Amino acid sequence: MDQGREEMRTTIQTGISLSFWTKKNLISQTMPEITDEYAESVSERYIELYEHITGEKFDKTAEEGDIAKRIEKNVSEYLATRK
Fold first, then answer.
1. Based on C-alpha coordinates, what's the Rg of the chain?
2. pTM score of the predicted model
3. Is-contact 22 31, C-beta < 8 A?
4. 53 with 8: CB under 8 angstroms?
């Protein structure tokens, strides 16, 4: 596995692990505030990994609208190609 894919896999696994830990350990507690600066730094890291793996420039303004619907559409289209 090349380094870019390994970095992406590690980042995704970390995110999933953090999500499960948060649900398990903070279910009855107040979630800590995530600052705009922190959210932006996480976003920039994912964009950096995307560009490294694909070799393409990521354009944040490429698509607008309902993000959840766009994700659902893209995942459904991808899964349809895997059958």
1. 16
2. 0.43
3. yes
4. yes
CB burial class (10 A; 0-12, 13-18, 19+) of residue 25? Answer: exposed
Q: Please give the Cα distance from 9 to 74 (Å, whole number).
A: 20
Q: State the Cα angle at 61 between 80 and 50, rounded to 5°.
A: 60
> If you write DSSP's letter for every residue of 22-58 in order, what string do you get?
HHHHSTTSPPPP--HHHHHHHHHHHHHHHHHHH-S--
**Residue holding tokens 């990521």?**
58
pLDDT in tens, 5-53: 677 677 777 766 666 666 666 666 666 778 888 888 888 888 888 888 8
